[in-house]
User: What shape does this take?
Amino acid sequence: MTTEAAPSRNVFIDDAADRRLAGDLFDALRAESFDGIGITRESFSERESTALDIVEAKAREFGLETTRDAGANLVVTLAGHEGDLPYLACGSHLDSVPQGGNFDGAAGVVAGLAVLARFKRDKIVPRRTIKLFGLRGEESSRFGKAYMGSLALFGKLTAEDLRVVDRDGRALGDCMREVGADVGRIEKGEPLLDARRIAAWVELHIEQGPVLVARELPVGIVTGIRGNVRHRNVECIGEAGHSGAVPRWLRHDAVFAVAELMTHLDRHWRTLLERGRDVVVTSGVFGTDPAEHAIARIPGKVTFSFEVRSQSKETLEGFYDLFRSECNLI
Ligand SMILES: [Zn+2]
Assistant: This one.
């Protein structure tokens, strides 16, 4: 970010008005999205729309200009005095995972709005226009696909993507249309946003890991985001049998097989870390079928998810190869 906007003033002073704005917004967002445990605002849902409305209403209180773009995202604009220059963008997503945290995504939107509101309150006109984006549809929990909203903005959400359905069989394209997105343009792969007009994008985001707290750091700068290779559903097929009647040498126990696989993966993971590689491995969905499993039944099938993430493409592909060769071996 350049420092050309209002160089003589510090707009990031910790101020009671900023804290009030942030507190009010977080409270309002939480009140509308609390599910009993956490925050649930599914992508392209009514709750997500409500969140955009809440932020928009607050922006208008400060006399800021608001609009919805062709992807149905909220855009709040503070005009600069050299409006022809590419603008500075900030913001984040307003959808959430099920039972998510109140700060995820929303922190970036609230922080951006606090900055714009302060410019407005102090009657500072920045050189460049600043736009705050309250984005929709970034989380993968509803449609199994992440960054749908921003992909649409860049003309990269395909017609095929638009046909994916949620657990109720509702298509992504229909849900996007319902909240006001121009699905016709998205389908054609038309960019909804002129990326050349953006000088920089600054996004504040809550850390989703424990590292800052563990190291007692108040803030950090993101230097990279891990890419991933994942399988939603891997099946290990063994052979079901009576737990009392089948001896070890005749067993094909799927749970033991997958447990062995995971142990091997864990060992590879540790080795890679020792070599200074960046990698994380997760199997978050894992189980035998409740319709047929029993305490006295040798499990004939285990289904599990597999995910590996790394900041290095090479490490990612290397680990994925290890995964497949371990599967074959076992
Ligand atoms: Zn987030």
